[in-house]
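[09:14] KT: can someone run the structure on this one? pasting the chain below
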Amino acid sequence: MSFHFFFSFLLCVPKEEEGQGNRYTDVPSPNRERTGGLFKFKNPNADEEKSKKNTFFKDEKEFRQKFQYTKEIEVQNTVVVNSIVVQNSPSDLNLAIKPGEQLDIIDVTKDDKIICRNMRGKYGYVSIENIACS
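[09:31] RB: done, structure tokens below
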């Protein structure tokens, strides 16, 4: 085995053989665009994902300030809103809900309300009478 052959195999460069001209291995030439593990490509959805993450943290921070909530935010259960929604007093603390919407229960209060998070990441109070029994 010649020294040239060994390096041409490792470096994947063309090997010249007598009488046959240039013979190339199955490797892209340097002027072709390379894909794969050698280069990092920017995820086209990276900006959108970053924006969603920032919005999520912003909503959580706003929730903690409005409700003066100091506990760790843990989902205790997932519920569905009734088909008939009764929202008595719209306020800044009540969560706007739609029939059939899925909500995460974050905490239960002493009143007849629970603190919920919708799938858009918004937090607020929801009356127990608006939750479907399963």
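[09:33] KT: thanks! Residues 5-10 have pLDDT under 50 and may be disordered.
[09:34] RB: yep, looked fine to me
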